[in-house]
Amino acid sequence: MKKLSAMVLIFGLAATCLAQSISPAVVSSAGAEGQAGAVQVSWTVGENSVSTLTSSTVVITEGFHQPFLAVESISSYDLSAEVKVYPNPTQASLWLEIERQGASVLVITLIDVSGKLISSQSSTSPSDRLEFDLTGLATGVYSLHLVDPATHASRSFSVQKIQ
User: Fold this and answer.
1) For residue range 102-124, what is the model confidence (pLDDT) as tens digits?
2) Predicted TM-score of the model (pTM)
3) What domains are defined for the chain?
């Protein structure tokens, strides 16, 4: 009887216990998470060299910061306009000529390699010629982005500023 009672007690406890679960957790010396609108950033200070093993059903990766990343869709809309950027490379002024159908707003931004906004202009004309003055900027590579906010159509150019 004691054996039966002990077995019932053991099986009863085993049935009510929960097993371990695997969830994303990080044990590191430094790190943080932040969110602004739809953008979420998380980071940790960790290993600089990791390897990944894969099979048909399992992926195992060394390292400890492995956030879930699911890309549902990426929409790409090409800006339907004829765009000329010249001279490139340039020492002083950068000219932008735009020929397009319609007269929706077009936002043009010049950004440096660190992501800092250098200049921003708007165009509402189907045919426009804009100047960006680069004389006070450091030598380097800059990005020129053209975006139609209504359709999210865009086009980007790399611009080199020389001495």
Assistant:
1) 778 899 999 999 999 999 999 99
2) 0.53
3) 81-161 (2.60.40.1930)
